[in-house]
Amino acid sequence: MADEKDREETAVAEFHKKIKEAFEVFDHESNNTVDVREIGTIIRSLGCCPSEGELHDLIAELEEEEPTGYIRFEKFLPVMTEILLERRYRPIPEDVLLRAFEVLDTAKRGFLTKDELIKYMTEEGEPFSQEEMEEMLSAAIDPESNSINYKDYISMMVIDEN
Amino acid sequence: HKCSGSGTGKAPLSLRAVLIIQNWFRGYRARLKARQQYALTIFQSIEYADEQDQIQLCNFFTFMLENYKHIRKEEIELSQLTESKLDMMDKQDYVDLIDVPDSYQGPRLQFPLTCADIDLLLEAFKGKQILHARYVLEVLFETKKLLKQMPNFTQIQTSPSKEVTVCGDLHGKLDDLFLIFYKNGLPSGSNPYVFNGDFVDRGRNSMEVLMILCVSFLKNKTYSISYLQIHGKKILQTLEELYTWLPIGTIIDNEILVVHGGISETTDLNLLHRLERNKMKSVLMPPKEINKDYNTDSKHSKLGVTISAHGRIKASGLSSEHLPKHEWEQVIDILWSDPRGKKGCFPNTGRGGGCYFGPDITSKILNKFQLKMIIRSHECKPEGYEICHGGKVVTIFSASNYYEEDSNRGAYVKLCSGTNPRFFQYQVTDATCFQPLHQRVSTMENSAIKILRERMISRKSDLIHAFQHQDRRKSGKLPVSQWAFCMESILGLNLPWRSLSSNLVIIDQNGNVEYMSSFRNIHIEKPIKEANSALVETLYRYRSDLEIIFNAIDTDHSGLISMEEFHAMWKLFSSHYNLHIDNSQVNKIANMMDLNRDGSIDFTEFLKAFYVVHKYETMVKPEATNLA
Known about the structure:
The complex is a heterodimer of chains A (162) and B (628).
Chain A: H1 2-25, E1 33-35, H2 39-45, H3 52-62, E2 70-72, H4 73-85, H5 94-104, E3 112-113, H6 114-123, H7 130-140, E4 147-148, H8 150-161
Antiparallel strand pairs in A: 1-2, 3-4
Helix pairs in contact in A: 1-4, 5-8
Chain B: H1 12-67, H2 83-88, H3 91-96, H4 115-126, H5 133-148, E1 153-156, E2 164-167, H6 174-184, E3 193-196, H7 206-220, E4 223-225, H8 236-244, E5 249-252, E6 256-258, H9 269-274, E7 293-295, E8 299-300, E9 306-307, E10 312-314, H10 325-336, E11 338-339, E12 345-347, E13 355-357, H11 359-368, E14 373-376, E15 385-388, E16 393-396, E17 410-415, E18 422-426, H12 437-458, H13 460-470, E19 477-479, H14 480-491, H15 497-504, E20 506-507, E21 512-514, E22 522-524, H16 533-541, H17 543-553, E23 560-562, H18 563-576, H19 583-593, E24 600-602, H20 603-608, E25 612-614
Helix pairs in contact in B: 1-12, 1-18, 4-7, 5-7, 5-8, 13-14, 18-19
């Protein structure tokens, strides 16, 4: 029992340091605050994948009574530690991602056209902004066929991350 | 937030698929941005750490110049190239010593300069021609002469037909300067410019930038100002004098203060107007005590530098040549401070000099001297400029892609009384800027990690010593936290080590670091096999310092120094930097460098041989670790 408690305490201490590091990199003023618009990036850089809706709720929890546009580290640390301990917002496994693309590829061609992808991503679910759409296209699209071979795209992204 | 399907009949399966893809992409994109930010943090912390290293080098330079007198048997001894001697020499005498051969293809300048000369120089540099040393010296002499006549603060008045353009750091980036002139026109009487410091160093074309600015200044009195970081070697002495004469700052329309760094709570403009700026011999040296034996064992200067020379510098008789301490501190604050959001004034621990000043300090000082705004540079900003302190402080940075391709934009600002400042941004583009985000981030990240690993290899022995000290069981592994602690304390860099660990070292399934794995695919190529690794590391770490010092000793520019000179210099160097290197090792190296046994060392060959070999040019990536 004591051993387990020790291990949990060490795990928490390590999480704290990890969270602090990730936070500090975006703390441009060196005053323990970050711009609220960077919170999503920080949380995701720590390996979590909340949806936009979930992120929205988290930010509401992290903001001050009177929102200042900045999030303080003192507030961020306990919330983020909890998320990591509970292993919330787990990332999407590669095979699930591949199946998602296959679902959209109703004709089972092995690719999606540029227009199809744009329509899905910007009109449904939690729609992409123009910037997000452009970024996905710049990496995913094969300029000759104007289509996205999603299997290759996923492989490429996975290699890049690893 | 919106969460929509495109119709009531839409199968929920496809909606779920879309959500999955969007969620994954946003996570991926965020991790790219974080990696980009990590790379920038690495670049910036190494940059600031290097600035502190330069302090050591400058201290050593002074120490060396004062102690190194009797080695060279040649006529012009290094220690005699003092300001008084150069002043006594007529410029014509000095420059006339230099002949421009007929075979010289580069631009030939006529003094006094004309507009044609500026165009000639610009075209020449665009065509990658080299300017002959004689013209370089002439330009520097003329510039120095003109600067001496100027007050500490240049006063400029704007008018509707005469806006002034303020540019920030250029860092020797010639392409950015060309771009600015192309967008905004060449400097002239009706198109004045202020260049707010850091025009040179780091960029590949520092001399060209300096020449263009000096020539523009001579022709048009472009108000070139302040703070010059110099890495030029052969013309070092002349440049050193020139920059002591650069004005401290500029005041525009009696309401805008333009300085390189910023202010502190004690900034006194009246004092700054009055002081003798040329007595600021180097920004990086603390003023000496007057008439005291200056025992420099482990003395911490204001800039937090340990000067640990095992000698004494007699400072008697030098009091008239240096600024008194309180004046020196005022100038340091102007040149090194950074604005921050936190109220108050705190020592600038990142730089080792100047302070961090808050919005309350800005208001106080602006009110005190009836000014409205401060324009400063000194910090790289992603958009090329940044406004803070409620609009009262503007940072302007003019070197785009400063750290790496695509790291940031450059900007300049145009001012005219009665109107708001107008900002113009640009970026020197390359084909790479049209690459997708993940490739640009990859490039930047690889570059940052490479620099970091080279840092590590230069401290390899110290790092291994620290790791082994922590690794009681001699397992070759350490928990991440201990590894991170060692890295930070030995390298002195405040970086997110845990987040970077997977790029630097192999981590096993238990989350432990195999600390020797960092050094596996990278080593310093040794010029001589027999040299032991500690010595090699030391020489590697100080190689750029050594190169500068060697070049200063080599007054006839032959590329050779005598064995005697080498020994004397090495003795000074190692005692100053407190290096514990066995003398016999050094002798061995020196003897081996004398390849043809004629008693002289070709040091450029020697130093060139120290380069870091990266076994694989792309990063060797260890197994991915799962977070949490």
